[in-house]
Batch of 2 targets.
Target 1
Amino acid sequence: MDSSMDGTRSLRRTKEEKKLLRRQIKASHTLLKHEGISTASHPTKHLVVSNGGLGNGVSRESLLEVLKEGGTVESLLTPPAKPYAFVTYSSTEAGQNAYTLLNGRALQCHDQSVTLYFSYVEKGVSLLEDFVSPEEELQLLQAVDWTPHTDDVTVQKALKHRRVKHYGYEFRYDNNNIDKDKLLPGGLPAECDALLQRCLADGHISVLPDQLTVNQYQSGQGIPPHVDTHSAFEDPILSLSLGAKTVMDFKHPDGRSVAVVLPERSLLVMKGESRYLWTHGITPRKFDVVPVSEVEGSGVMTSDLSNLTLSRRGTRTSLTFRKIRHIPCNCAYPSVCDSQLLSSPPTVPVAEGDACRLEEQYVHQVYEEISSHFSSTRHSPWPHVRDFLLSLPPGSILADIGCGNGKYLEINPEVISVGCDRSANLVQICVERGYEAFVSDALSVPLRSGSCDACISIAVIHHFSTQERRQAAVRELVRLLKVGGRALIYVWAMEQEYNNQKSKYLKEGTAGASVEMMSSDMKCTEEQNVTQPRIHIHTNRTAFLSQDLLVPWHLKCNADKNKGAGSGSTNGPLENMSQGPVFHRYYHVFQQGELEEMCCCGGVTGVKVLRSYHDQGNWCVELEKTHGNSS
Amino acid sequence: MKLLTHNMLTSHVKGVTKGYPLIIKATEVKVNELEFNAQFVSRMIPKLEWNALIQAAEWLGRSQDLPSTLIPNYENDEEFLHKVHRILLEVEVIEGCLQCPESGREFPISKGVPNMLLIEDE
């Protein structure tokens, strides 16, 4: 079945062979699409090699050997456990040559033979090694003046970890944006000119950057995963590593993550998806696990355990060069784009697509970014939930849909507990704690119908932005239950005060609602979609003024223990904002009777409501499944 | 991901009717030691899809003479319970993927976490 073994013969394939090759390439495109990799129709110097991955049992060495036949290989990325690899050649011509020569090539690896299929892709991340000489490195390190100015002191305090200095424009950490009116005198240090000219000449950038952020990381310091604000900077973003190497983690919103070693004196170029969509961060650690082989140099972390070693972190200084953006961002990733989303403040969605996008920006991404801080504030189980769990017969199967950091998964050790959450970071925390959990959406849980004796959904459904989606979430819980099984649902109540008892959430804040937040509920715009109410930003620890809100979360990097039951780290509306970035989470808070009505009338069938109550600022419902599934 | 979880997971790709069990393709497997609780294990057994467990064990190359059908009176067979305990709770897939047997769709397992998210049009 396989095509030819050498270059000349590959140009004289039979009609059947060509047809087969076309079909196989199409199949590989479908698989790649499932992985979120879109192939380009025009030749580029970047190619994805299907079947050439560590997940296929193909080693980096044997793949590299074949790839070199196509031309000079600039970089090779071999993501762990994936059935593909990414290769970047030195030029588009080399890429084209490799494509023509190597597409359909059979590769012998150990005892098996795999067929490699090549497709062009747009570029993501490029890593250019030895971009500066050791002499230049020293010059650049000496050029940074760390003498603190008064402004810097507050920033330093806020960041608590790495040292930071800006050139060109000031970066503000309270809103993660650039103050475009605050031009810093002096511009970029002259010592950077040479390397920037090289970037220009090599075609990595088409305009010179006008903003530089220098970060100095001591061993044990890092930076949380983030995407550089779309509206602040153009594309690409360059990052030069000096003084020591480190490992940078890239994460895709769908949960995929890739670890890349950044050697000393290397230049990282983040373009397209890797600049706009993937988050990047450095875990605060003193040691990294890196590949042994110097020949391999940098590249993606492989799961080949025999080839890894511990590398102690040194002090690394990174120079991140960026071009300030002066017109709103119009990238292809609107769900994560602050220009495209905040230019029109969010309104309560109607269409499914709008609802998904809203939840992506104001729920999923937020939890990914705040996960460790969030987890540290979620340590005490709600007593009634605890009682429910302890009431389950031993050997019951329990599913916690939206399990967060997993705190309910160990309450009843006699019960078989499994959790799932939309946030990959939170699920990671669960697994690290020894709980069984997987990443999944609450609207489509990959468990068989009728397989659970009990389900819980604690503080989850209030994150869905339409009535249909909230109902669908309840229906999914019911689907999982066997007949006679029980579910417990907790959602945030609009009425924080009930029976004259203030909820803990209200008690811990200052009294009274902030009247300034009351801009008119119905904001009329010029557009058609006029009557959808705007989603207000809520003032923490005050009464809820409407049902659909954005609730702020003030991220604390040094994860202090916080008692707050609701929003976590808020110490009152007057707390100074320089602590760290603010995230907004979308909530639909429920009115009295709303949850109960949703569960028994119309939207959800086959259940009866066993109990319905108010608990510490939440509306709660316990359901029992009465009828079997239709499908 | 332990095999207990695998036993419960199914493919939820749209239109798929034969999505269980998911095929395990593991590239990294770990074995942890977990305290043995005979009662817990014997209560778990009736809740399992036994055939799926046997298949899962085979995919990991750890069939370890587990019987293809449940033996009667297994609650009192300590040796058997130990085998079940080991395969169900102590073996963990760290890296690899789960494949839908009908559609071929692969769900990655990374650092012990299966990612079962579907993209919008699936």
Target 2
Amino acid sequence: YFNRSYLLFGCAYQQSEGRELTKEEKQRLRKEKKQQKKNKEKKDDNASQESEKEKKSVSSSSSAPQPPTQPATQKAPSAVPAPAPAVVPASETPAPVEKPAKSKAELKAERRARQEAERASKQGKKGETGQQAATGKPKAPPSELQPVVKRLPEHIQVDNPDVLKKLAKKLERQQIPLRLDYGYKVSLFSHLHQYSRKAPLTQQLSIPSSVIHPAIVRLGLQYSQGIVAGSNARSVALLHAFKQVIRDYTTPPNEELSRDLVNKLKPYISFLNQCRPLSASMGNAIKYIKKEISNIPSQCKEEEAKGKLLNCIECYINEKIILAAKAIAKYAIEKISDGDVILVYGCSSLVNHILCEAFEKNRKFRVIVVDSRPRLEGREALRRLVQRGISCTYVLISAVSYILPEVSKVFLGAHALLANGYVMSRVGTSQIALVAKAFNVPVLVCCETYKFCERVQTDSFVSNELDDPDDLIVTRKGKTQLEDWQQVPLLGLLNLVYDVTPPDFVDLVITDLGMIPCTSVPVVLRVKNVDL
Amino acid sequence: MPGSDKETDLTERIEAFLSDLKRGGSGTGPLRGSAETARETTALLRRITAQARWSSAGDLMEIIRKEGRRMTAAQPSETTVGNMIRRVLKIIREEYARSRGSSEETDQQESLHKLLTSGGLSEENFRQHFAALKANVIEAINELLTELEGTTDNIAMQALEHIHSNEVIMTIGRSRTVEAFLKDAARKRKFHVIVAECAPFCQGHEMATSLSKAGIETTVITDAAIFAVMSRVNKVIIGTQTVLANGGLRAVNGTHTLALAAKHHSTPLIVCAPMFKLSPQFPNEEDTFHKFVSPHEVLPFTEGEILSKVNVHCPVFDYVPPELITLFISNIGGHAPSYIYRLMSELYHPEDHEL
């Protein structure tokens, strides 16, 4: 009975992932059962019980090779660039599981029990973190260091046709158009999307759209055209758009606000994800909102609930972004002394804020702004700093080894800080850190804690964003060399957006919790999780 | 008079060459490759030898030195001009010594032994007149010219020894030598090339189109992505503008970053440089090392107001120290960077280092 019951949970978990088991999954289950019958005599029950339990509970969750894109379980929205596949699916390795043969009646009973368990687990899991949810399934190993059940996000599995099919089905259900990839993709990056800026998603939408709130449509367009760029700006814009959505929301009859609003937000998030893959900061913000919404007690009146939610969002923006910036500036200014020559890269709102604050406090320093093609974001930073009266120098990233001997400190912004201490930031940041290290110049990274991410990554290939390759084309002296790059069969253009900097290049990370070394990031994450 | 005609013709040619040099280096990228410059310089020097009026080797060397100083002053960053002049001066010394009968296989370098034993001999003033000297020198210069013609091919011939199949090779900017090198290897092997575009001149684009037309799978990346992509690269092959006396390079800007990234990932860095790029300069001459072009390339005038309040730099060259380089491939074979000083002593006479 014991073995049956955890097969039951295994199946329950699998079923709760997708709406129905696909043909392949059903076949696999049948195969598994056959194998289990064969191995029944060979293995000892008790000895392998413990390991099987863990393997099954974790493997069955991650064994679905086509992880569903919008699991209805405790998993945060798949749009969160959440995760590396935690465990090698043990479904292929002969799990020496003993299972008695099943008869039809037993199967029926199992199915009924499964549905009960599913309903129960859904209630228990709603909106909670992985830790608590896993304990809802009594079979999961009850340790503190829960393996957070991770599923691969869809946007790094573009080379898997099954994943694409699932995504297409899901988008169809949500009535959101699917955005098509553009141009020849470099083979190293065939697992990522590559969109063209000239074909925004909104062209395929009917205006006015009945499914998606117009504030979200506008936001999506701003993201895909690059009008709103930079992780803080994108998060704040997202939260404002959600505020508008909440204001315009009315609970339909016979529905609870806490459940319905979350469901309403899902297609919006899919849409935004199609326009431009969500950033880590946006993912964390969405997690927060979903949790707040599902924590609204059911007897709360609609107006009150909406007011509460709007207030929550305001607080989040205020605390995590605005006040955090002030705290970081306070710490960072201690590190800036008179006569400093500070090097910054691209346009980070936080670093610009720090420099402006330092200038207000009458520190004497000058700034070198390093920029890179094709985004040329440094020019924006240059304008803002020059407007304040800070004396600036401007170079391109290829000249950085020329200018570095003059520099005393390097300040860099971050897009996200990963759990293994790597800094994910605009492409080129790791290069600047590398050259600074070679010249023995200290590198300081400034990052708010809401950008901390549980993911781990060691190189810039597995999870990245590919921007429009046409951006690399430039016309010089009347000649555009790469104009017909699409016609040339062996030529590819690569326009990466992010890269990861190893922690040994970074000397200090300045966050709103203080100044920490790069390796302390998982500690901060743990502390934050416990708080939540 | 035929004599004066020849002279005026000669001076005209020299002036034309000088103005060409001045214009060619005006910041929009070299209009001509260094190989062409070297060839033209050598041809001009041959003409000077043939047409100018001189009676002894010393006179000829004086004339060449004078013209050489003018040429190098016209375009200081074009070091091949100076290199060719030094080569020719060395040729003259050798031919003179051969005519005199003394053997010159002994070491050119100053040695304590030489100073003590051959006291007066080092006071060569090259005043003796030899009738056959002119013909010999011109013949030697012709040999030099043939050597120059074949440099790119000689380097390209070694390509298959260094590139295996399914490699990923990274390069930066545009180098005709590297282009020929890769195209030669592509005839027999299949590999990928990643080209860093090298802003602001973006010569990498031209390189990429040319390579892809030759059947090589090419990818263009921005300069900012060099470190990000480096972990998948097997070799870095670059060209250079000059090879310095300590084995370092003066190469296009961005090369130092590329070299550092390659060192970090322990990827070999191979420099394809023909012998005429070897220069007896050292990198510690701050004012002559760097060359700057109009900052308009970096921050165009359309940016408006902020232009007057901002310093903008647009350096053309980068210094790459010899510790970051794995191998030099030249027309006479492959060398380690620590061997460069020896090659230099064979090509140039120490007294010619300062023209």
